[in-house]
Amino acid sequence: MRLGVLDVGSNTVHLLVVDARRGGHPTPMSSTKATLRLAEALDNSGKITKRGADKLISTVDEFAKIAASSGCAELMAFATSAVRDAQNSDDVLARVRDQTGVELQVLSGVNESRLTFLAVRRWYGWSAGRIVNIDIGGGSLELCSGVDEAPDVALSLQLGAGRLTREWLPDDPPGRRRVAMLRDWLQSELAEASAEVLAAGPPDLTVASSKTFRSLARLTGAAPSGAGPRVKRTLTASGLRQLISFISRMTTADRAELEGVSADRAPQIVAGALVAEASMRALSIETVDICPWALREGLILRKLDSEADGTALVEIPMGDSGGESTNRAKSGRSKGGAR
């Protein structure tokens, strides 16, 4: 079947159209993006502004029409951290539904982590053993570990690259002192979460997903996207440290000129690199493999599974009791960030 996945993130709205069947490899047919920066379209009370909501509605309407004209049998529309955190998310979602006919579902941070892990597991297979995965978005950081398709531990922390750029690195370039302060703070914030991930067991394979990690790997010498998704790409801790020293002294305009960094991602790539560095250090990881699949592919795979077994698409049964500390969301609020 042909499916459309509409992903409303902190920075962009992305429509992915794929041909997919259960047991097969989803084949991308088209990809359409728009930069909305919803996380920046908040007023002082934490509500998405009318202008921000209007832009979201017009974009969702446009992308829904593209999905229909592309022959999609179904459009799966999801929102992550920017809408999830907004104080008026229910009102905005109602406006989207009433004016576009699209039911935009909000993914919890934990389900975001679970679905990303599903995509990573399917990409690397059972022979990979225990996988630890790190995923950096605009608003949140997801960490997970598991030996099955359902992770033993799935965490979501408010440590996204865009969020930390706004709170900690307002200057351009950010300056050594701010970078050092953010480094120290991230080490403290990640201590508890990393201990929980490591307590699940030592990983056989350490993986990183998300566009942030793909950009960081490219900047440290990994193959370009044009080489195809099956080319092995890695990111090392030593290469990342050298990269941070380099890009943290550059302006946003200069970073946008680097191969592998888009103009949209250039403002937050320093914060993303610092989160990646802190995560790898906290988890005692020296090298990560870059997985080309992430949340959107996880949504597609889970949709195909749900068609077969009749389970709910978003609320995925993970075998936990609901009262344990695993599969939880953790807040990473700023303590001393930029005012």
TrEMBL record:
EC number: 3.6.1.11
Compositionally biased intervals (Basic residues): 330-339
Residues covered by region (Disordered): 316-339
SUPFAM superfamilies: Actin-like ATPase domain
Catalytic activity, reaction form: [phosphate](n) + H2O = [phosphate](n-1) + phosphate + H(+)
Molecular function, one GO term: exopolyphosphatase activity
Any Pfam family matching the protein: Ppx-GppA
Domain Ppx/GppA phosphatase N-terminal: residue ranges: 17-307
Keywords of this entry: Hydrolase
Family: Belongs to the GppA/Ppx family.
Protein name per Swiss-Prot or TrEMBL: Exopolyphosphatase 1
